[in-house]
Structures are given as structure tokens and as C-alpha cells.
Specification:
Blueprint: E1 9-13, H1 20-31, E2 34-37, H2 38-46, H3 50-57, H4 59-75, E3 80-83, H5 92-100, E4 102-108, H6 111-118, H7 134-152, E5 157-160, H8 166-179
This protein binds shikimate-3-phosphate.
Length: 182
């Protein structure tokens, strides 16, 4: 078991491109736990991509769905590694639900690190698809990331992922889990 409430889940939060999904998948294998990617669950449930949901149904619809599916996942009695979406905990009730049901870890990455990681993959990211140059992308991410920091910083732990390889990030998360075993 992990988490201060002696229970269940490990939640990974962080901006788009912070490595939540790739780190989460590898970590779940290492811990022999289930891995759930919240965006993938939403896509399964809606039978369309996140980009298409934003386009056809709008962001508000997506956010409602995100909150509902997060609650369904949390109800799962087995310990699960969960990669949240970059905007999930901007909703304070989602933040509280994550903090109350496990350990919430913020994968921190600077705006310039994020641009390096995702500049070739903005098409599938509806909030970033409109930015055509690296400078426009960086300017937007700096401001947007800043506006989200207040909630990201409420996570139980923060891991600086800048300049780090995935293995090192996973080792740091494993150390936190070991320290917080109940
Ligand atoms: C979003 C992040 C995306 C996805 C959606 C909105 C956000 O998830 O949920 O495009 O608001 O930051 P990733 O962080 O997994 O890319």
C-alpha cells in the first residue's frame, strides 16, 4: 500500500509532455500494478480521440468526462498507477480526490523542456495545436504552466524531470513510495 491514507493509488500529474504516461507505464510494470492513463480511458469511453472530443464536443464536455472517469478509476479497489491529464487537477475537486485517495506526484518540467519534448506532437494536443512556431508555443506554455502551478504544487511530492532520464525519474518515485509505505 502507498499513500498517506494507507491506500491505493499513485497519481502522476504535470504539464503535457512531463512524462506522466511513459513514466507511469514503466513504473506500474516495476511495481506489478495496473496502469491507467486517464486520457486513454476517456478516448475508449467516447470512442474518439481527445483532439476530436475537443473539436466536436468542446472542452467543457471533455472536462466533465475527465472528472467522471477519474472518479470511476478511483473507486477501483486495487492499487493502480494513474497518469492524469495535464489539466485534471486544475479542477480543485479532482485535486482533492487525488490527494484523498493516494499519493499525488508532480512531474515538474520547465516550459523550455516541455517545448523540446512535444514540439513535434502538438497536432494531437488540442490546447497547443494552433501554435505554429517554437516561440509562440514557448510563450503560451510559460503563461499556461504558470497559471497551473498553484495546483501542481499542492501535490504530495514534486520530482524535477528536467535533464533527467526516465530511469532516474522512476528511481526517484520508487524511493518516495518506499518512504511512504504504510
Ligand atoms: C490537457 C492535457 C492532455 C489532455 C488534454 C488536455 C491539458 O493530457 O488531457 O489534451 O489541459 O493540459 P496530457 O497531459 O497527457 O497530454
Amino acid at each position: 500500500m502507498i499513500g498517506k491514507s494507507g491506500n491505493k493509488h499513485l497519481f502522476l500529474t504535470g504539464y503535457m509532455g512531463s512524462g506522466k504516461s511513459s513514466v507511469g507505464l514503466l513504473l506500474s510494470k516495476q511495481l506489478s500494478k495496473h496502469f491507467i492513463d486517464l486520457d486513454a480511458r476517456i478516448e475508449e469511453s467516447e470512442k474518439m480521440s481527445v483532439a476530436k472530443i475537443f473539436k466536436e464536443k468542446g472542452e467543457k464536455y471533455f472536462r466533465n468526462k475527465e472528472s467522471c472517469i477519474l472518479r470511476e478509476i478511483i473507486r477501483n479497489p486495487n492499487l493502480t498507477v494513474i497518469a492524469l491529464g495535464g489539466g485534471t487537477i486544475s479542477d480543485s475537486s479532482n485535486l482533492k480526490a487525488s490527494l484523498d485517495n493516494g499519493l499525488l506526484i508532480y512531474l515538474e518540467a520547465s516550459a523550455s523542456t516541455i517545448v523540446k519534448r512535444i514540439k513535434k506532437e502538438t497536432v494531437e494536443r488540442p490546447l497547443l495545436a494552433q501554435f505554429k512556431t517554437d516561440t509562440d508555443l514557448l510563450n503560451f506554455i510559460e503563461t499556461h504552466l504558470n497559471s497551473r502551478l498553484v495546483n501542481y504544487r499542492k501535490a504530495d511530492f514534486t520530482i524535477d524531470t528536467n535533464e533527467k532520464k526516465r530511469d532516474q525519474i522512476i528511481a526517484e518515485i520508487s524511493a518516495i513510495i518506499n518512504l511512504n509505505k504504510s
